[in-house]
Amino acid sequence: MTAHASHETSASILKQPKAVWAVAFACVIAFMGIGLVDPILPAIAESLQATPTETEMLFTSYLLITGLAMLGTSWLSSRIGAKKTLLIGLALIIVFAAAAGLSQNVEEVIGFRAGWGLGNALFISTALATIVGAAAGGTGSAIILYEAALGLGIAVGPLLGGLLGHVSWRGPFFGTAALMAVGFIAIVVFLKDERDASARPEPTRLSAPIRALRQPALAVLAAAALFYNIGFFVLLAYSPFPLGFDALGLGFTFFGWGLALAITSVFVAPLLTARMPRTRVLWIALPLLSLDLVAAGLFIEDPTALVVCIVVGGLVLGVLNTVLTECVMEATDLQRSVASSAYSAVRFLGGALAPPAAAELAHLISPSAPYYAAAGSVLIAALVVVAGHRALRRVDRVEHGAGASEREAEAITVGDAA
């Protein structure tokens, strides 16, 4: 990109219609929900007299419903339009986040987090297409803006959760509901309705994502992502317990984790894939993540060392999120929304199973056991990628231009929605 083109792109990013800013703001809040509850897990366990396993179910219910709902979001949005899908998703998040804040026991919070996951699936699966369609300055500017919203949400979520959770564990839930209400109003006011039916995507079949997993390349990537995501969520969801920090300390720790993930996801991963095949990046990054998890297990009694492992893990996770889901976009000729839905549904199963399983391993064996098990799971993901390299030949083709950038951003969207 020339200096002149770069200057034009930077300028166009800031000169966007109000509708784009409204959706981008809501995106930041939606992605904050990923790590928002992380700093308050110990506080919830103490206040509601819940076991660590019960508390980890807050992640399980959220991710399980998000993954299952992803199978139907493209079917719904292709029939009722993007704006209605966005608003339904936001409304569900507002209602269930507020209800979680009013809960009197951990079972209620778990149930309301499931409803939150449904709303999040509807919103995040539609947001990128909406921004690209409404943005000024071309697809490139829209994608940069979306990536900025994504990174900001992932980084700020744990920090806001820690700050509000320092006052009360209910604070992050009410804060999310209030911010999402602002986003809801902004989208109602500034985003136009799709009055022309031709502007909507072609309706997709409800069974399309399930049928997509018959494709060998997509099946390999989904299986690898399932085992990789176990490592991801052991690091994110289990680590607050051995760290032993208060909500504010956990908030700052996972702010560092989210910031590291966002930086490598947006900037480092594209540099790596421009210099080597995507599968080679996976062969290198997955074992590195496994080693980081082993280190976390070894240094679990040293809070400083464990914080370093968490932040370093964020750096590796950012690369893996982007490259894995880039591969999904390039692996088949399937419609991208269908491929993403199929991949995400399988991937989120790993995320849903990991947190309570980690808590049980810690209780039955030792506090370090979840990290070692997660390291083994990530190694299995690496072996799946190596064993399936023939099916993944297509993902190593080098692409240039706006089309490649658009596919990269779509991949990041669904990959980081967990």
Written account of the structure:
By secondary structure, the protein is mainly α. It has a single domain, classed as Up-down Bundle (Growth Hormone, Chain: A). Helices cover 80% and strands 0% of the residues. It is built from 17 helices and no strands. The longest helix has 29 residues, at 52-80. It is globular and about 55 Å long.
Would you tell me the overall average pLDDT?
A: 83
CATH topology annotation: Growth Hormone, Chain: A
Helix content: over 70%
CATH architecture: Up-down Bundle
Gross geometry: globular
Q: Give the tally of structural domains.
A: 1
DSSP summary: helix tally: 17
- Derived from helix and strand composition plus strand pairing, the structural class reads mainly alpha
Output the radius of gyration.
20 Å
Explain the layout of strands and helices.
Blueprint: H1 3-14, H2 18-32, H3 41-47, H4 52-80, H5 82-101, H6 106-134, H7 138-165, H8 171-190, H9 208-212, H10 216-238, H11 240-243, H12 247-275, H13 278-298, H14 303-331, H15 336-364, H16 369-387, H17 402-415
Helix pairs in contact: 1-7, 2-6, 2-7, 2-8, 3-4, 4-5, 4-6, 4-15, 5-6, 5-8, 6-7, 7-12, 7-17, 10-14, 10-15, 10-16, 12-14, 13-14, 13-16, 14-17, 15-16, 15-17
Transmembrane segments: 20-45, 57-78, 85-102, 114-136, 143-167, 173-191, 217-241, 247-269, 281-299, 305-324, 345-365, 371-388
Subcellular location: Cell membrane
InterPro entries: MFS, MFS_dom, MFS_trans_sf, Tet-R_TetA/multi-R_MdtG-like, YfmO-like
